[in-house]
């Protein structure tokens, strides 16, 4: 490739915190469900740019909207001027959101959406403290970092503010055999909340609880509906606002528009981003008009948020999701993928749990002998799969879970293609383990 010398020396001018991420694949083009590498190979993308390109890479309708939008406006800023794209998108987005979530503060990212959600809750409730859940990931800026606990390294030396408390996330795997997992998780939650309120903070000091309705970076943990319902009940009892971070679970990923709809619990505030604009930077803090109007003028603002070009891309993305019925495709194709992965589990001892809802699928990698989480094994499997032409990503506290989050436009044939490559990678990995034991 022409820029090989730049690629070889990227650490000279790109911060390694991002430039050294996996797999650092040099590409020259993206299309649909594929990346096209500078090596001339085609790579089936099961990462969607980390749950961003739900309608597929460079969907023609999105590309056309960006090109036309560039002939109108490249920059707002919203408030100084006003423009059609942000208003039209807000109007149309409200139609697919749960409950009365119909008023928006547009920013540039998921982290900004989380920061806005917490600020809004504190303004409305006039209470200082926030409760989050262990294993949750809400971003890496300082406010969001205070509620992110998926990995301790994200918080190292950062000294997040002391205005947050953590509760354990639903311990689905810890449920004793034979016991109902929903009842077990609710019982544990009640104990944990009682302990927190008795020993650390009074409920009338807590402005909000924030959580991912399905853990993302923390390992793709899907909690029982009863557990989320109990959280809703606790928030209502004490006048605490409930914030859902749906940055990764939104826009059809779970088979519904949002995970809150799939799991039957409505939050008071929602943070959304990632798949909103098919790769252009856009995020939003969402609440009801009643809550949002309590945010004083000038208490929160943005220069680039709600960019007119990003809003054009977002409007086109929303239209494609509707026209191609992609949430339903996620539900149907996701069920097929899950069935095939369970068949794969019978064949490979390196596969632990398979956790899925729609096309949000986590595949736990374990040591075949000890059955413990195997992060090193996972990375080997991902490297082998990439050599076969399939790009997967990872998550989990110990980097032990393969994320399988392809574009929602993916077909069963492409799912089969990807799972076949994963099967081959698992076989090579396990053969390598056996040869090392000899």
Automatic annotation (TrEMBL):
The keyword Lyase does not apply. Its cofactor is pyridoxal 5'-phosphate. It comes from Pontibacillus yanchengensis. This is Aminotransferase class III-fold pyridoxal phosphate-dependent enzyme. Transmembrane segments: none annotated. Keywords: Aminotransferase, Pyridoxal phosphate, Transferase. Belongs to the class-III pyridoxal-phosphate-dependent aminotransferase family. NCBIfam families: PRK08117.1. One of its GO terms (molecular function) is transaminase activity.
